[in-house]
Amino acid sequence: MSFGTLIRSPASIADFFCALVVFEIVRRRGSLRTAVACGAGVALSPVLIATSGYHGNTDAVAVTFALAAAYLLADRKAPLAAGVAAALCISVKFIPVVVIPALFVVALRGGRPVFVRFTAGFAALIALVWGPVLVTVPENLKENVLEYAGGNYRLWGLVRFADVLGLPEPFIAFIRGEGHFLFVLICVAVGVWLAWVRPAQLPGVVAVTMGLLLLLSTASALQYLTWAAAAMFVIGFWEGLAYSCLLGWTAVLGYQGRSAVRWSETVLQLGAAGWFVLAIGLVTGVRKILAAPPDAPSPTSAERASVTAPRASQPSGSAVK
Asked: From what superkingdom does this record's organism come (predicted)?
């Protein structure tokens, strides 16, 4: 196998499994037809095809593990495996760290045994993967991972709009520098709040949190569009379709340019339109999460309950019409 194939394989394989995870998440909360459509939407998303199959960036792997952690914890009731998946997601890329507090909140609400097993799985893998780094090169970890702020290009979202509106340079420098931690904290706070009030909707909470991180991101790169590609299909089919079509077009045109970090005017305009599509989808996602009953069982759980529940006996001699 060529190096080009090998470097694209992890993200492409992750997208395949992400499609299955999204299918299962949606199936437990909606119809089978919608679940199939959302799973297929992930598999055929132009955003993921461009970023995974062409660029080969591993953001898709991190997002897959983040959604898998939510699915394992909330739907499969497998906290140990969920903790391992949560640790894996931030070990591939640190970006999904914004969803980790929400995962811990749901584990805590599940009771002491659930919280202990989730924490054990998370801590064991973190110690294995991050332990040697913390011991040997803590400063490199701090500077190159924890404090990484992305490139200096003004191509996306808040920084792009601030530049277009002619806002003062010190303000733009602040939101791109130390101020970007404020937006990260907002994402964490929203995720924790939603997870606390609707723990059964944890996969949707993770999807909204990852999408909000992209919406408020003060850095820009085409592969960042991956953060919300599968997540929007967790929120809903039409939200995912709108996002994938518009920002998939953005990604494809961006990668066809002379440089993926220097967007053409067309790509900039598509990106701006996609930002608003993402914002609308996130509002819809939050409304759907809050509209769900606090402890709504998944359809599969309800079906099992209806099968095992005893039926009332018919009176002797009665006829059934």
From this structure: Bacteria
CA distance 55 to 40: 21
| Start-to-end Cα distance in the chain | 67
The per-residue pLDDT for 47 is 97
Q: Is residue 316 over pLDDT 80?
A: no
Q: Phi, psi (5° rounding) for residue 156? A: -140, 145
* 134, 141 contact by CB (below 8 A): yes
Q: Tokens at residue 214, please? A: 């992209």
Higher pLDDT, 303 or 16: 16
Please tell me the distance from the alpha carbon of residue 43 to that of residue 246, in angstroms, as a whole number: 16
Enumerate residues 6+ apart whose C-beta is below 8 A from 250.
222, 225, 267, 270, 271, 274
Phi-psi region of 102 (alpha: psi -120 to 50; beta: other; left: phi over 0): alpha
Q: How many other C-beta atoms can be found within 10 angstroms of the C-beta atom of residue 247?
A: 29
**pLDDT tens for each residue of 121-145:** 999 999 999 999 999 999 998 888 8
In the numeric block, the tokens 């340079």 are attached to 169
Contact in structure between 87 and 78 (CB atoms under 8 Å): no
> What percentage of the chain's residues is helix, strand, coil (to nearest 5)?
75, 0, 25
- Read off the pLDDT of residues 67-120 as tens digits, 9 standing for 90 and up: 999 999 999 999 999 999 999 999 999 999 999 999 999 999 999 999 999 999
Reference 217, options 170, 270, 153; nearest CA is 153
**CB atoms inside a 10 Å sphere around CB 105:** 20
